[in-house]
Write a structure and sequence with these properties.
The radius of gyration is 20 Å and the shape is elongated. By secondary structure, it is of the alpha+beta class. It has two domains: 172 residues, Beta-Lactamase (2-Layer Sandwich); 74 residues, Arc Repressor Mutant, subunit A (Orthogonal Bundle). The longest helix is centred in the middle third of the chain and has 24 residues. It has 13 helices and five strands. A five-stranded antiparallel beta sheet has the order 2-1-5-4-3, with helices on both faces. Keywords: DNA-binding, Transcription, Transcription regulation.
Length: 267
């Protein structure tokens, strides 16, 4: 009987979600509907335009807390290290993706994961990704303090068959779309923050490796990606650390965060 009431509640929630297509309350209702079916701890609906920084559309916390600074940091450039953002930019087809499907092999050892992701997104994340041709990407992220199990992933994968069309319909009918385009100067500035980081002192290859380190790639994965040996990767890593006068990944991450602040304050 409890399963019957649960199904009735889900169908009723789905009906309410459909009626809110084009309404600012759509995202919150969709998140609450998903939370009713599969428990998670936070959610974020976000739009990644083809140019410029992302635009947060809805935030949800099962246990609300005030984290304005962390979201501002993410929107101001830290998103460049987000594996889901990279998946969106690389054109992953619309669908549901697990963190392990999109993250580099050493992502959980990266300073981005340790210093930001684990405190704000928590332990695991899945994301509904909807590609908007010639416009950008719309995504709905679900974060959890525990790793999503096989049953939860299976259920969310099934839900993707109607979640993604609902997201598409809402985008097309919404009267409150994000303002496009973003100011061109700011868009270019944020977009290039990662590619220009350290460019004054590092070689092109060292810049490439610094970016991969920040994103959480191991030496082996970098070697395979760049088609060079792991030993050569280690040499480049030593050289770039020496040129930046640092000795660890946390210091590299700290320099990147500082460069974001400097770039945004000095366009």
């Amino acid at each position: 009987m409890s399963n019957l009431f649960r199904e009735v509640g889900l169908h009723a929630g789905l009906g309410r979600t459909v009626t809110l297509i084009g309404n600012p309350r759509f995202w919150k209702q969709l998140v609450l509907l998903l939370h009713q079916a599969t428990p998670f701890d936070n959610a974020l609906a976000i739009f990644y335009p083809r140019e410029g920084p992302p635009q947060a559309l809805e935030e949800y916390d099962a246990e609300p807390s005030s984290k304005p600074a962390s979201m501002l940091t993410y929107l101001n450039g830290l998103y460049l290290l987000d594996p889901f953002f990279q998946a969106c930019r690389e054109g992953y087809p619309s669908g549901l993706y697990r963190l392990e499907e999109v993250a580099p092999d050493h992502f959980r050892q990266s300073e981005y994961f340790l210093s930001y992701f684990h405190d704000n997104v928590l332990e695991d994340e899945v994301q509904f990704i909807l590609q908007l041709p010639d416009t950008g990407t719309l995504s709905l992220s679900l974060g959890s303090q525990r790793v999503f199990d096989r049953e939860q992933i299976g259920q969310l994968t099934t839900f993707a068959a109607w979640v993604l069309p609902l997201m598409q319909q809402h985008w097309q009918h919404s009267q409150l779309r994000p303002q496009l385009p973003v100011a061109e100067e700011m868009a270019s500035q944020i977009r290039d923050a990662l590619s220009h980081f350290g460019s004054a002192v590092l070689s092109d290859r060292e810049l490439e490796i610094a970016r991969l380190i920040l994103r959480g790639f191991s030496s082996k994965a970098m070697a395979e990606r760049l088609k060079i040996s792991p030993d050569t990767i280690k040499v480049h890593r030593r050289h770039l650390y020496a040129k930046l006068d640092i000795s660890s990944q946390p210091e590299l991450f700290s320099l990147f965060i500082q460069s974001l602040g400097h770039d945004l304050d000095n366009p």
